[in-house]
Each structure stands twice: as structure tokens, then as C-alpha cells.
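Researcher: Here's the sequence for the chain we discussed earlier.
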Amino acid sequence: MDLVVEGRAYVRGKLGRWAIGIEDGRIAEISRTIRGGERMDLGDLIILPGAIDPHVHFRDPGMTDKEDFSTGTLAAACGGVTTVLDMPNTLPPSVSTDKLAEKKEAISRKAWVDYGLFGGCIPGARVEQMAPMVVGFKVFMGSSTGRLLVAEDRDLAGIAARVKRTGKVLSVHAEDEGMIRHETGKALADHLRNRPAAAEVSAIRRLSSLDCPINVCHVSSAEGLQALESLSFTTEVTAHHMLLDRDSEGGAYLKVNPPLRTKEDRLALFQAFVSGRIDMLGSDHAPHTIEEKEQEFDVAPSGVPGVETTVPMMLAFMKRGTLPMEVLVSAMAEKPASRFNLNKGRLEVGRDADLMVVDPRAAAPIKVNYLHSKCGWTPFEGREAIFPRMVFVRGELVVEDGEPVGERAGRDVVAAERS
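Model: Thanks. This is the structure I predict for it:
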């Protein structure tokens, strides 16, 4: 056994005292006691599966002034995220095997955590050719960062049919482009007016006619939740849509697509999440520079960072008893692993040894000076969070006491699956 980690571990749906034996990067044994190997007794600290963030934009290649795969994955690791799934709207966009290969080459030696890439779907994209290189596919039904818009039903139907043949999942930015107004705005309320909840509902209804596995990204409204109730899609929610709204202070720093909505919307999302009615927790980490966000509201780009703060904020809710441990572990680890076919997400023999070690007594306010994203700001300054004490990626310690240790351990989950 390479390493035995002992502590209060979340195993088979319950917290108990366990020893976890790790060999060749995977969990080889879970018992009350294990003999042999280097030992690490964590006392009363809690061992949880590492989180999987199914929605990040690490801006690499092409926009690395905002973020790159090194800073993005380091921020992820410090936030307890051991696998990230990166979106295709980079420069150039990942919409072909050639562009995916270029991106993989650009990021291959930078990652602190494991990663998978989404293939971008545009009309005419060769989906079947990209499938062996990607963890899933992405469609933007509403305009956002980049130029990957797919607005016509016939194009959506063709993409869905090709995605179905690959056996992969289609993650969708569900805002109906035909209902988005491109009018001048000076505040968050204007941005919400331009991108109403009705656009989300309309997009979800249009998706309901497609025949392929669908994941609806960043659900943002109570009406959107209601529209999803009768559908078999998986769903994803962000911390910013649950904790911030159009009346929050921050101006263009809080401009994001889909927009922050009303207090009633965010409370409905939070209640749905804590009750287990939303499948996955995603950050939609979409950093921009301070200089970009300081521009006039109408010119400033949409997107907020969150990969390092999302799980720690949810851990603080768990400590307070607001969020059940089983719901958080399911949404941050188990469901993403299942949906995207990853050998991760559970403390279970045979799974990758991705772990986070948490001290529930270590709650503290978020301070941007201690974060690792290149963008240098956060919408969650001062919010209570519990950052992991340690983080392991496939049995390798990569974070200890909030700082990186050891070597960059990250690898492509799709390439690893084939090896």
C-alpha cells in the first residue's frame, strides 16, 4: 500500500471512522484498520471525495491574461476541486479535432488537478470525430463569451442526433437568443431585463423535443426550475445564482450570463439545491480582468470567478446545518462523476483516490488576497467559507494548508480512460 489515510470519512452515505488504502493512484481498500504503507492519521478531520466542477472557463488558450490552466487548476485544487471540466469557448474555440489537439498540447503540463474538455458544437461540427477527445459537448443557445451560438431548431436537432450516437452528454447554455434584447444597460436590473427568465424557459422547452442526454447548465430562475420538473435532463446550479441577485452591490463585476435575477429566484434555487432537487454544483468560473470589469457596465464582459470559493462556501452551509452532507457530496462529486462517466466522485474501492480533508472548525471569511485565480478579484469577499486543509489528486498531496505542495498531478480524464 502506498499510503493509508485515516479519519472520519464519508463512505457509503455515512460519516464514520475509516482507513483508506491508496495504491497506484486508486483506492485499494477501505477498512477499519489497514496494515502496511505510509500512514496519515487525520484525527477528527473529515475526509470527503474531491469535488468535480462540471463547468469552468480557464481561458487557455487565447485569453490567458484573465486565467490560464495553471492558475485555474491551482485555484480549483485550493477550493477542494480535484477535477474540472473546461468549456470550449477559448481562442480559438475547441470545435474540431485539430483545435482540441492544440488546446490539449497547450495545457498538458500545467494542470494541478485532473481535467476534461468539452467539444464546442456549431452547425456542421464533426461531433463523432471529436467524441474520443472530449468528456462531453457544449451548445450555447444564447449569445455569451465567444461565437459558438446555435439558435435554430434544425441545427440543434442535428447536433443532438450526432451527440446521441457518441454516447456523450450535451451540456447547454439555455437562453433563447430570439428573446434576448441587446439594449444598452447601466445596471444589473437592465441586464436582467435584456435576458429575462422567459428566455431560459423557452430554451428549456425547445430542448425538450431533442433526443440525446442533456445537462442544463447554470439554471438561474424559479420558472426555469419549474420548466425542468417534468424532464429527464440533469441540472446544474452556481453559487452566484443562489447567493447574489440583481440588488446585490457590485455593478459590472456581477454582470454574468444568465444574469443574476430576483431575490425570489435565488432563494428558490438555494432551496431546490439544499433539498437535493438540483443534480450538480458548478462554478461557471468565468474570470475577466479588473480592468475589463471596471469599464462602463454596457461594455464590461459577463462572467465571475468561483472555482476556488464555491465548495468552501457550501461547506460552511453544511457546517451550519443548512445543507445536508449527503446532498453536497452528491452534487459536488457523485452526480458529476456519474453524468460524465468518470471513475471518481466516491470513496470506494477502485475509484481514483481524489480526496479533500476538511476541518469544520476552520470557518473564515473569504479574502481575495488568499485566492489563486489570476483575475485577482471575487464576488464573494467576506463570505464565510471552509477551505480544505488538504487535497489529494489520485493519492498525491497537492494542497496543504491552502498552498500548493508537491508536483502538478493533473491529467486528461479522457486520455486516462483510454490508457
